[in-house]
Amino acid sequence: MVHIRLFLDGERQYSKITGPTGPLVYPALHVYIYTALYHLTDEGTNILRAQVIFSGLYLITLAVVLACYRRVGAPPWLLVPLALSKRLHSIFVLRLFNDCWAALGLWVAIYLLQRRNWAAGTLVWGLGLGVKMTLLLAAPGVGVVLLQGAGLAGAVWSGLSVLLSQMVLATPFLNSATGVDYFLRAFDFGRQFLFKWSVNWRFIGEDTFLSKGFAIGLLVVHVTLLLTFLQAKWIRPTASSLWGFVTKYLGAINESERTRVSQKISPTFVMDTVLGSMVIGLLCARSLHYQFYAYLGWATPYLLWRAGGGPVWVLVNWAVQEYSWLVFPSTDMSSSLVVLELAVQAMCALIAPPVDHIRGPMKKGVKSG
């Protein structure tokens, strides 16, 4: 709230908006949301009212998550791990992190994309990105869904809408003196987190964690996994190879084939692709903090189930992951479990059966043959 007070006092240069928690490093929509909260909670002093607001945010997000699960025909028992995460409750109701708003943007975007509202889904994802740049981890998945669902022109226009929305949101900070400063702070790709707060790679030791070689290695793994998923899973509605995929879209795919491809972009394909992209990004992130669980906690049960896992498999892995994220401060053991479970979920996303094998919820009045 110190940041917000400075913003309300007229400061528009991001590098000068700082406080006890450090400088402001989040995009503009974060500022606007917490400005509203500043006024609603008596300048940030009414913590109980803030907790009530975030409790409502938690319930709304959970409702959207359940709607996404329903559209892929997920079994009702998955409600257990979805609703019982102590870490998610802490992130939303006790810590009041901005990741909660970004997570809502992610799941609303998934729901809209499942309903084939390509432009709206992309715009909402962009609004989530306007709260925290972590949603960039889902960008490869969102892009693949858009390209095959909406076509090249639709994907380009949707991407431009995201860029335009970021510019509009950033307008107060974009004069000649502060514009560059805003983007360098709000979308800082070179920012390094402190080793002592890391939840994931603590077990490798601080010297390795801070080394340039480790950062480059993670980037190589990230790109390799994305290419693997593209080849093995994400481009299958269009082509059997990356080269075939690229040549079709560079060669202006004809309308009849574009329609055929678009029809294959089912709710399950959307969930597989966007959540797969997200978990790959989290696995290869140099540093995860506890609030990053907002992007993982509700994705985990789906990814584990999609690989054919039954209740025991899903609940045991979910419990192990939940434990590892509850240990504070993180230890060599807990951090290794965090990475292990992320790797398991990435593998589950890779080996999940083809989308054609999954039935969505049956419509009323339609009998199975």
From TrEMBL:
Keywords: Endoplasmic reticulum, Glycosyltransferase, Membrane, Transferase, Transmembrane, Transmembrane helix. It is found in: Endoplasmic reticulum membrane. Pathway: Protein modification; protein glycosylation. Its EC number is 2.4.1.258. One of its GO terms (cellular component) is endoplasmic reticulum membrane. GO terms for molecular function: dol-P-Man:Man(5)GlcNAc(2)-PP-Dol alpha-1,3-mannosyltransferase activity. InterPro entries: Glycosyltransferase_ALG3 (IPR007873). It is a multi-pass membrane protein. The chain crosses the membrane at residues 52-72, 92-113, 134-157, 163-184, 209-230. The keyword Endoplasmic reticulum applies. It comes from the Eukaryota. It catalyses: an alpha-D-Man-(1->2)-alpha-D-Man-(1->2)-alpha-D-Man-(1->3)-[alpha-D-Man-(1->6)]-beta-D-Man-(1->4)-beta-D-GlcNAc-(1->4)-alpha-D-GlcNAc-diphospho-di-trans,poly-cis-dolichol + a di-trans,poly-cis-dolichyl beta-D-mannosyl phosphate = an alpha-D-Man-(1->2)-alpha-D-Man-(1->2)-alpha-D-Man-(1->3)-[alpha-D-Man-(1->3)-alpha-D-Man-(1->6)]-beta-D-Man-(1->4)-beta-D-GlcNAc-(1->4)-alpha-D-GlcNAc-diphospho-di-trans,poly-cis-dolichol + a di-trans,poly-cis-dolichyl phosphate + H(+). Belongs to the glycosyltransferase ALG3 family. PANTHER family: DOL-P-MAN:MAN(5)GLCNAC(2)-PP-DOL ALPHA-1,3-MANNOSYLTRANSFERASE (PTHR12646:SF0), NOT56 - RELATED (PTHR12646). Dol-P-Man:Man(5)GlcNAc(2)-PP-Dol alpha-1,3-mannosyltransferase that operates in the biosynthetic pathway of dolichol-linked oligosaccharides, the glycan precursors employed in protein asparagine (N)-glycosylation. The assembly of dolichol-linked oligosaccharides begins on the cytosolic side of the endoplasmic reticulum membrane and finishes in its lumen. The sequential addition of sugars to dolichol pyrophosphate produces dolichol-linked oligosaccharides containing fourteen sugars, including two GlcNAcs, nine mannoses and three glucoses. This is Dol-P-Man:Man(5)GlcNAc(2)-PP-Dol alpha-1,3-mannosyltransferase. The lineage of its organism: Eukaryota, Fungi, Dikarya, Ascomycota, Pezizomycotina.
